[in-house]
Amino acid sequence: MKPKILVVDDEPDALEILGFKLKEAGYVPLLAKDGTRAIALARDERPALIVLDLMLPEVDGLEVCKILRQDPSTAAIPILMLTARATEMDRVIGLELGADDYVTKPFSPRELVLRIKKLLGRVKAADEPVTQLRFGSLEVDVPKHRVTVQGEPVALTATEFKLLELLARRRGRVQTRERLLQDVWGYDNPIDSRTVDTHMRRLREKIGSAADYLETIRGVGYRFKAEG
Fold first, then answer.
1. Average pLDDT of each block of 10 consecutive residues along the chain (228 residues)?
2. Displacement of CA 80 from its chain's centroid (Å)
């Protein structure tokens, strides 16, 4: 099946051009002119990626990003923000809320399609089954349930190991506390997100210098940095 790409922009011309370019590149474009429609489409269609303009009527792009990241059903969808050059603070806030990448306006539709391909490729690579994960001085041996930092073994509980492995496999993508409670702890109805925070604090303490890979996204959850 062709990947679905949700494009959210209040400019009809931009939607038309991007929709055409995405079809040309082999994708199925889903188009939304406002934040409310974007949230509904994201939940119903589960696109492979979302291109999200920050300047939207009703619900702006930052709020849309926050809502999607807090919903376990949409939390893992990569988000590529569209932002004006002058709104640097919005760009920073957007990345903190869980956007995966950004493109500044004005932009080339061809460049945007290339950025989409690159981001989807990164997500696919992060999902590929591997038995060993290596990031600088941090090594995770999945079959042996063994973690080392700078060659020294680190004693982790089974839950701490699973939490680190899951974040590393999904590197570059924000994982909400609710999503982690479901995927690591198996809670169907997550209630107390402090469980995640407590384990993250202990995990960071144990892996020492490698804790820099574990990034807190304020008000949302955590992300394993795609690059050290």
1. 93 93 96 96 95 90 88 83 71 72 84 88 66 90 90 87 92 86 74 80 94 89 79
2. 10
* Domain residue limits, the chain: 4-127, 132-224
Class in CATH terms, 132-224? mainly alpha
Q: Which H/E stretch holds residue 201?
A: helix 194-207
**120: exposed, middle or buried (Cβ count in 10 Å: 0-12, 13-18, 19+):** middle
> Rounded to whole angstroms, how far apart are CA atoms 77 and 123?
9
Count how many residues are written for the chain. 228
Half-sphere exposure of residue 107: CA atoms within 13 angstroms, side-chain side: 22
CATH class (in words) of the domain with range 4-127: alpha beta
Instruction: Give me the pLDDT at residue 107, please.
Output: 84
132-224 shares the fold of 4-127: no
User: What per-residue confidence (pLDDT) applies to 190?
Assistant: 58
